Amino acid sequence: MERRCEPELMDDALQVQAYAEADFSAGDQAVVERIAALFPAGLGPRVADLGCGPGNISFRLADRFAQSCVLGLDGAAAMLAVAGARLGPWRRGPGAEHPERLAFRQALLPLAPADGRALAAGFTAVVSNSLLHHLHDPLVLWRTVAELAAPGAAVYLRDLRRPASLEEAQALLARHLADAPPVLQRDYLASLQAAFEPREVAEQLQTAGLGQLQVRPLEDRYLEVWGQLA
After folding, report:
1. Per DSSP, what are the bridge partners of residue 103?
2. Can you tell me the distance from the alpha carbon of 11 to that of 3, in angstroms, rounded to the nearest whole number?
3. Whose CA, among 51, 86, 128, 169, lies 20 to 30 Å from 28?
């Protein structure tokens, strides 16, 4: 199946509401536990979560890695509004002794010069969940990873992978989101068609000078990229 791009930003009101109300907790926690297993020494003091959306992964990273400051970045103001609304209660909650460890910032990829200067390089870890398939030019993501990451930084990305046919995509939809709201079903099918194959991602990494990162299929619908930068 050929790739079909979808909109890069998720800022429609119905989308934002549906994603904010959906329960992705099991999958989100699986991402964080996978990161913890791959990087048992931790993620270091500065973590960037690219395409953070309403902050699902960002909050979990801050909870899981108590020595890290996490910055969630996203281009959609509506999604960040949800993350910001959740931030106040998190900062007052148990275990949040250092509330400044988690913050969110609006930024589009590729980073504008002002954003690049404000963020600076030197993140000890760069993670992303389900951003790659939204980008019309995937190299934008990999160049941002290289721009933000410090030498030796941990990198982890999980994303959907494109199935071989529309029929296979529809079967995945029926298997995993049969009871989801229509807007989520619509977006899921579009995302599967916009996703990449592991071979394509490996080529992207080589082009971006990130060939030291590994890529492999994961379960029946994902791929993951991980490693540490030289």
Report:
1. 71
2. 22
3. 169
Closest CA to 71 of 92, 96, 50, 41: 50
**pLDDT values of the chain reduced to their tens digit, one per residue, 230 residues:** 999 998 877 666 667 676 767 777 899 999 999 999 999 999 999 999 999 999 999 999 999 999 999 999 999 999 999 999 999 899 887 655 677 899 999 999 999 887 777 787 799 999 999 999 999 999 999 999 999 999 999 999 999 999 999 999 999 999 999 998 898 899 999 999 999 999 999 999 999 999 999 999 999 999 999 999 98
pTM here is 0.92
Contact 82, 104 (CB under 8 A): no
Question: What tokens appear for 170 in the block?
Answer: 């529809």
Beta bridge partners of 50: 73, 128
Q: Is 76 exposed, middle or buried (0-12, 13-18, 19+ CB in 10 A)?
A: buried
Residue ranges and CATH numbers for the domains of the chain are 13-228 (3.40.50.150)
The strand pair at 149-160 and 222-228 is best described as: antiparallel
Instruction: Provide the token pair at 205.
Output: 């990494």
- Find out whether 110 and 143 touch, Cβ atoms under 8 Å: yes
